Amino acid sequence: MRPIWTGSIGFGLVNIPVKLYSATQNSDLDLDMLDKKNHANIKFKRVNADTGKEVAYADIVKGYKLNDQYVVLDDKDFENANAKKTKTITIEDFAKESEIDTVYYETPYYLEPQKSGARAYALLREALKKTGKIGISTFVLRNKEHLAVLRPAGNVIVLNRIRFAEEIRDEKDLDLPAKTELKPKEIEMAVSLINQLTEKFDIKKYKDTYADDLMKVIKAKAKGTKIPVPKMKVVHKSGDLMDQLKASLGTKKKRAS
Q1: Cβ proximity of 181 and 192 under 8 Å
Q2: Are residues 16 and 86 in the same domain?
Q3: β-strands 156-162, 105-113: how paired?
Q4: Are residues 124 and 200 in the same domain?
């Protein structure tokens, strides 16, 4: 793996040199965009709005329009905005992981210590484990400041980017049902169904099969054969919620494939 960022963790007065790696990878098929008429590959170009000519990526700069004129910025300008923040994951506070709603979580990364920071890295990792806390931190990646949490996962410290409060939409605009619309017996049966289907979570038993299924369709279509479309089955035709809950409780537990 190649690091996408190099800097340090600021833990009080302790400085831990680290490298940042992406913790995820895409499992989707790499599909190309084609012209419907002749299946020619579609290409995107960066074009000068005045001349209509293509501009090489190396010749593109970023700018901000101020008083009808563009102020052009380079990498140094972004660093100078706060040079310390561009190279430091600053732990601002510590908190319980349960206090952060999952709607805030965004992208996970792995943190690896550089040789000089191995002992301090291990100290932070074990202290987080012992206290059951996570570190709330800020850092700059690709010229943008991010909020993140640091948490231990086995031997690695995971940095998980989280969203700022202003990035979450207010659910008050949604038309949501009131709790009073439910009958106590319905809630009791729903809880029983949840308990019946509850077991210790194991991420390894859940597989993303869509890409494999799509590849089967692609290979079959290349051969000129058709794959029968699976029909959606209506399990319960009754509109009565209690009947559906009773029927669900009577069925055997189905494991995810």
Answers
A1: no
A2: yes
A3: antiparallel
A4: no
User: Contact 20/107 with Cβ under 8 angstroms?
Assistant: no
Domain at 86, CATH number: 2.40.290.10
How many of the other CB atoms lie within 10 Å of CB of 257?
Answer: 7
Dist CA 63 CA 53 (whole Å): 20
Distance between CA 18 and CA 141 in Å, rounded? 14
Q: How crowded is residue 18: how many other Cβ atoms within 10 Å of its Cβ?
A: 23
Question: How is residue 152 written in tokens?
Answer: 């231990």
User: How many independent structural domains does the chain possess?
Assistant: 2
pLDDT, tens digit, 9 for 90 and up, residues 27-69: 888 889 999 999 999 999 999 999 999 999 999 999 999 989 9
In sequence order, the 6+-apart residues with CB closer than 8 A to the CB of 217 are 227
Task: Indicate whether 9 and 126 sit together in one domain.
Answer: yes
Residues 64/77, Cβ–Cβ less than 8 Å: no
Q: Computed over its alpha carbons, how large is the radius of gyration of the chain?
A: 26
